[in-house]
Structures
1.
Amino acid sequence: MHYFSTNRVSPHVSFRNAVLNGQPDDKGLYFPTVIPRLDDGFIDRLADIPNEQIAFDVIRPYVAGEIPDDTLFEICRETVNFEFPLVPITDKISTLELFHGPTLAFKDVGARFMSRCLQHFSRDNKEKTIVVVATSGDTGGAVAAGFHNVEGIEVVILYPKGKVSKVQELQLTTLGGNVTTLELHGNFDDCQALAKQALADSDLQSQVHLTSANSINVARWLPQQFYYFFALKQWQGEPPVISVPSGNFGNLASGILAHISGLPVKKFIAACNANDVVTRFLETQNYEPHDSVATLSNAMDVGAPSNFVRILEIFGNKFVDLKEKLESVSISDEVTAQTMRDVYKETGYILDPHGAVGYRALADHLETDPDSRGLFLETAHPVKFDSVREIIGTFGATPPSVDELRTKAKVSTEMDNDYDALRQILLSKI
Ligand SMILES: *Cc1c(COP(=O)(O)O)cnc(C)c1O
């Protein structure tokens, strides 16, 4: 198994080099040369297989022997060592709760897997690897927690002061150890621009080994397949319709990949907010990225979704095949908030804004497809978004990890939007 670039200029690489490079030089994305097929027996027996074994069996062909089996099994075990419950909300709709990990969002899975792969591949390096991440809230927390206390790695996070929720800020600023958190006087785009400038600074790169833990890295993308298998393990009846709240489309792309490998799924729904590039593409076949617009489901505010090319690649760039398996809808903030209120009133279930987009898209679909049932991914815990309390008056029960966070002291360094200041901090980490 090798990885090629979706732009087809850069050479094929091994799993190891795909992980270490992150992105091919031609600015495409790495994609596996073959999509492995799981045998039918595996799918039939899912309910009897422990999660860590499912994870190992799913990822093993992708790693292609570049991590020894016993190490890979241990990495899988640590990656999925929390709950992934499938919770019924109505007769027809269940939710796969992906918020039981350390930072209460699905990104924990990819971040934990990737950090351990990077540690394995850089174990012989004398110098430290510094992971630089700019975050608008969710990603930074998951990456920082994933790399926390991982030997040989330093993490530097940049977040925009005053622009992340209270819980997100605590998750970013209370880890300590190998995690340094910078609170920037600026917005998310400023944070991202500074991180990019550091990664492109060849003089700096000659002194410190920098990497980005980018969301397009195959080691973050591929393990997201695991929980689609965990969902089917708990599912009874005909194959479900699966609705995925989508922004950069990595999560959805991994679900479709799992399906091509043999996981029975009737249909996928790309549940989007007002950022509707993909919804429009499926209507018009014109792909027109635009600037993102701010919404309640802010982790999905993406105007140029980077992983969508992987979905096209899965379908061999055949629009008809794609359209048969994938539907996309865009849900406004008004409908998102109304869905949160209605579902809470009718069932007592508390949706976060991202999950609410997924719920609404699925419920609307099932109106037109009354014989089916489905599930949506609840991508983060409601307590991470201050808007939840404003909309429905409560966050529900607070997870113990949040109570614990509230007892910890915030440690961060305030910083102006100034590249030299960042450069000094990075150099001080060697
Ligand atoms: C990142 C994120 C998403 C979007 O996932 P993609 O893989 O980028 O499509 C959805 N919900 C939450 C809570 C997220 O943090």
Note: The radius of gyration is 21 Å.
2.
Amino acid sequence: MTYWRDCVDRMNGYTPGEQPRDHRIVKLNTNENPYPPCPGVSQALAEFDVNALRRYPDPSALELRREAARLFGLTEQHVLCGNGSDDLLTIGTRTFIDQGQRLAFTDPSYSLYPVLAQIQDAIPVTVPLTDSFDLPDTLATATQGCGMLFLARPNAPTGNSFDRNTLQRFCKRFPGIVWIDEAYADFADDHCVDLVPAHPNVVVSRTVSKSYSLAGIRLGLAFAAPPLVAQMMKVKDSYNVNMLTQQIALAALRDQDHVRRTVKQIRRTRAAVADALAQLGFHVLPSQANFLCVEPPLPATHFLEQLRQRSILVRHFPGPRTGSYVRVTIGTDREMDSFVAAARDIVACEC
Ligand SMILES: *Cc1c(COP(=O)(O)O)cnc(C)c1O
């Protein structure tokens, strides 16, 4: 007899990327934004009335939902806020998936999905992507009997996107929920929020952690048909988004120009780094995100260790599909210059 559930005993838990204390480290391991949040965020903090903290925050974050809805021509009934989009993924799993029910996700993909399935005591169903990390033609049959499919678009940790028309056709046929995790969509050429009004089974989630430079405040947004949002509202913690986060995020959503500018810069840097690495003999996967997934011309773990010795952190995902790659967050041009110089150095030592 144990005190804990068997499904919890069996699982490993999610491993977050390392957060080093030393600020001299070039930190390219958790896809944070290298640029500061918009000026409105500092102003919202400076003007915040500390006395207001005596009270509970708005349980439904109404003002924030209205602002988010406005960005996409939706209503507040289409929007749910979470304590980061990880919280939304948890709420979705608890709302839509029973114990013993099937929950699908692709391989590779965001490593939180299988953990959520395990916590729920659901049956994880892995859909292998093709050799070029695309959706397989067999997606519909592979997800048969599943209550939900988690799909990151652009995908993590590969950075590529999936064809929108293929995905839309799948959404129309699939009898369960299609949860499109758009954590990186602001860095991509297109997105899927516009699928929400016409599809009663589609949820699209966003986060301010990456494109808005606000990973520290924890805010995620889910867009879905009002009946889906209403059910998820019942499942979430009443006060899942704190008062400070609601105020700060509101200021951030109101400055779309700032996001556009930093995203443009990151996309420019991404293209330059991709070129430089390809010239050094790296295999560079096409990226629509704020990171590059690259295969070095030496063992990935060796490359990672050599970078670490030069105080540069990137992320490695062991396993047959991703083990030969490293994922490199796009930082400032200066940070990426150090990274490319280090990579050049390491590759030269190898031959
Ligand atoms: C970063 C990330 C998240 C988590 O976002 P938070 O809002 O910080 O919880 C969710 N999904 C994917 C694919 C991510 O890369």
Note: Residues 31, 84-86, 110, 152, 156, 181, 183, 207, 209, 215, 220 surround pyridoxal-5'-phosphate (CB under 6 Å).
